[in-house]
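Consider the following assembly input.
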Amino acid sequence: MTARVGIVTFPGSLDDRDAARAVRLAGGEPVRLWHADGDLAGVDAVVLPGGFSYGDYLRAGAISRFAPMMSSIVDAANGGLPVLGICNGFQILCESHLLAGAMIKNDHLHFVCKDQTLRVENADTAWTHRFDAGQEIVVPLKNQDGQFIADERTLDELEAEGRVVFRYVGGNPNGSRRDIAGITNARGNVVGLMPHPEHAIEPGFGPGVDGLTFFASAISATLATA
Amino acid sequence: MTPAAAGPADTIETAAATPDLEQPYRELGLADDEYARIREILGRRPTNAELAMYSVMWSEHCSYKSSKIHLAQFGEKTTEEMREHLLVGIGENAGVVDIGDGWAVTFKVESHNHPSYVEPYQGAATGVGGIVRDIISMGARPVAVMDQLRFGAIDHPDTARVVHGVVSGVGGYGNSLGLPNIGGETEFDSSYQRNPLVNALCVGVLRHDDIHLANASGAGNKVVLFGARTGGDGIGGASILASETFDADKPSKRPSVQVGDPFMEKVLIECCLELFAAGVVEGIQDLGAAGISCATSELASNGDGGMHVDLENVLLRDPSLTAGEILMSESQERMMAVVTPDKLDAFLAITTKWDVESAVIGEVTGTGRLTIDHHGHRIVDVDPRTVAHDGPVYDRPHARPAWQDALNADAAEALPRAGTAAELRAQVLAVAGSPNLASKSWVTDQYDRYVQGNTALAQPDDAGVVRVDEESGLGVAIATDANGRFSKLDPYTGAQLALAEAYRNVATVGARPLAVTDCLNIGSPEDPDAMWQLVQTITGLADACAELGVPVTGGNVSLYNSTLAGDVGVGHIDASINPTPVIGVLGVLDDVARVTPSGWREDGLELVLLGTTREELSGSAWSGVVHGHLGGRPPMADLTAERALAQVLVQASSGGFVTAAHDVSVGGLAQTLVDSVLRFGLGATVALEEPATRDGVDATSALFSESGARALVAVRADHRDRLLLLAAEHGVPAAGVGVTGGDSLTLTLPGANEVSIPVSELRDVSGRTLPQAFG
């Protein structure tokens, strides 16, 4: 059997088709979900893709969190459904309070697009268990509002509980606190990160294929529990 | 008192009854004889609304009245053979090219120059938005954008304002649409001071069956306006209208630069693609310059009947807009579709799904007329062809400028040359760090090049390459080039050299060149000097297209780039920008996985220089950077040699025996080597004595000559003989010049000079120029 991974399209989502391709190349079955529906169609995992939902005209992710689909996803995530938020998806997960902290404009105020090295700090989540802890990977980073912030207590908590999943290596590209590129929730089923693993899945179309492991992790995890 | 202030409804009856009413046609940019012609066409004076429509549609921007008779050369010089791959040619929103397997590609480059000086962010942003809507209108999914940017001198106090605004505008809009930016150009030259050039190219992909055209046919079909609401922005963008000439009571001029909403555009893209897929669109037109005036008159005149519009049905952002303003508004992110009545519900269901507002504003009729009512008053009754297609056509005076001969006589070949290895080394670094050749990462890192997951090459490679078919790997390469310095010296040759360079760049990555788009940025057509440059540019380009066998499929002409004429006067050598014909060439690759990058990642590859180097230094980067000089004659455009070189590069790529390739252009072979070394940070050891002796040139020419039809190729040692054989078959001179590897670029030059520069030093010199200027 094949794991069915839902990809939600919000108005202004940009990397939804890319995320669907990544799921397919990792061996899963992509299932397109529409923000205005509330039905998760029985998927085994969900990806909230990158983009500028609602133009990021308010705060990134601030409007999308009220989508009917997000209510269903919050409930399912609290029940253990693997959820990956990439870039704008990460911002939506923070706005939905599935993940801690918030994202503000990059410290240098420019959009930045580059191949970014990350260190995998936590290889026990639903989306990273096929990596090794401490492994360095390269995936594209591209955002305007990518500076991860949280109060010191929250940051200490994230560190203490091993909930920092990825850290920037070789220079902090946006001013994120403690070089944090991605985090998870206490249960380890919800992961958010700013860089784009769906753009590192095919040789010749991005910096390598490290991104495929994210999707392969979730697919194998859901099959193992099925 | 202006006519509109006399009452809101200047109807056709009123117009007929008040033939002697004075109308502000001159303020609207119409000449006396043009106004007289409108009266003759209508058999009465135009209503205010009609005057508004004619004035914008007969403007230079919309009617091409100064360039039309010359642009006809593109059609006349295109042979049947060149049309082989053309599905849609010049005249539609964009040309469409067959790339095989049922796939087609549409692409076009356009300018948004003047708005980008007035308001750089919005000017550049809406430039991207406009070209993207042209591509959607053809029925295609946009898949990539590129921007060709030219600014004033890098150290001029106003340049940073324009650069920051334009770059963030291109990024802010394009990034939000999910379109990878796969290349482009960024140049600085004082001729663009107060007159920056912001050109934007978009490429879209469609199946052959999906082509949509802008025509309104079938009486009874509905005309639907959808997307953003119509507001007061952009009025006067297409002509020089100031709204107070329409209503003296309005408190202020409305802004003439449009404001973009990329989120709306993104939703509109997806909405349109779903409408096309559902088969509910008969005809479609985007709203750009001249807004509803342009869309209604073009749709109606391209169709088989007429059109009636009830203007009060247009959804407004500002309820106080007059009929003339509604007709002229250039509010962004709007589209107009023709829909059969039985499919209207399905159409509206899709727009509703995407939260896109839509309004049925009229219908196709059988009258042959375009009629527009506003609250029951008939304010427009015209033959749409007279608005959209039968505008004035001028054969404006053009003459070789008085200063041209003196400029051509001042050859750079006579300038002093470096005498020592140390001087040559310093010149290589000066050229590499000069604003036009330094790393453009500061710009391009602000653009998303990855979205859609199909980008095989982007800047700084020779061409941007995107995959079209995931199964087969079929894809397209696009390169754009222009060299304003060459065009200043000789606009005929300059246009040919721009085409040759773009054609060569596409071949360098391994793609077969197929078709051309162009954006001709020139000075005022009312200045015989600039008009001569325009005619020379068009003629040179049309001749070169015929010789290379690639047709022009569409494009844009931007005139009146003569801001500095206000300071120095018409007829002065500096009155207009350097003529800048931006030429885009599209090529096809059967499998983008075989694409050739511009640099090497492995030691021990053999470097082969293809082509002949002549002593051609006039107009070169060397002459400008080292000597601050512009004069002489540009390099010769040897199109036979370009064609032969392209065949070698494409066949070497498809045969799988080329590892890297980079063309030789601005900055000469020195810059080609610097670029290739910096691509992946691996050095090379190069000896140029042998080819220099063969070609009879000295060290300066060997390094900095900008002779065309040349490329540097890196091959595995066991592939070298195959490459040399292939080059010999096509009559392309080839010379082994060195090997890759090491952490320096080491050059042995004629006269036994040796120059060695560490890769790290090259990276610093190339990388720091733009960040130092713009932070």
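The radius of gyration of chain B is 27 Å. Ask yourself how this observation constrains the way the partners meet.
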